[in-house]
Amino acid sequence: MKGxxxxxxxxxxxxxxxxxxxxxxxxxxxxxxxASLVQYRNKSADAALRLTQARALLAICRRHHVPxxxxxxxxxxxxxxxxxxxxxxxxxxxxxxxxxxxxxxLIGASCYNLVQNALNAExxxxxxxxxxxxxxxxxxxxxxxxxxxxxQEAKRRVSVPVVAIGGITLANAPQLxxxxxxxxxxxxxxxAAPDVKLAAQQFNALFKKSS
Length: 211
Known about the structure:
Shape: globular
Strand content: 15-25%
Helix content: 40-55%
Structural class: alpha/beta
Order of helices and strands: EHEHEHEHEHEHEHEHH
Distance between the termini: 26 Å
CATH superfamily: Aldolase class I
Radius of gyration: 16 Å
Number of strands: 8
Largest sheet: 8 strands, parallel, barrel
CATH class: Alpha Beta
Number of helices: 9
CATH architecture: Alpha-Beta Barrel
């Protein structure tokens, strides 16, 4: 990835899939459908599986010229030369990660339901901020809920791109886009869809309708 890409459109976040071949097939379909970023997130894998899967997905993303982001694991991002890192609230300091990553690498931060978290993250070097969960999430059922107007406030106060996450479907995504989300991060409604490529195309079409 040359330079930093703008964060916009469909942000594909991988499910906890132990079968690397199935994961590769799903990500390839998401990219074919127009996903603009891919984040590797697997909370159940051990270090060896994470390395195997991350390397496989990085190769696919490079062929599609789409940034490949690692969730949480700075060491993994550095080892495979991923295009960036996404950090949650308990995953380490953004400034420390920025000091170790090439300046061209992307850093994203989960900011939950607080704009102040996003302001802090931006000051420490984050390239985008993510808010949510906006809707009930099967992946994180106990996640803090964020109100829709949080996106509007964030767009007024934060200068980096704003990502919405949490329980997003084709039915509710238009609300988030209308409220100002630059990108929507989707797991289940994308990778559990009967046709992943078609689902990606449909999510991307929502952004075209709003423009």
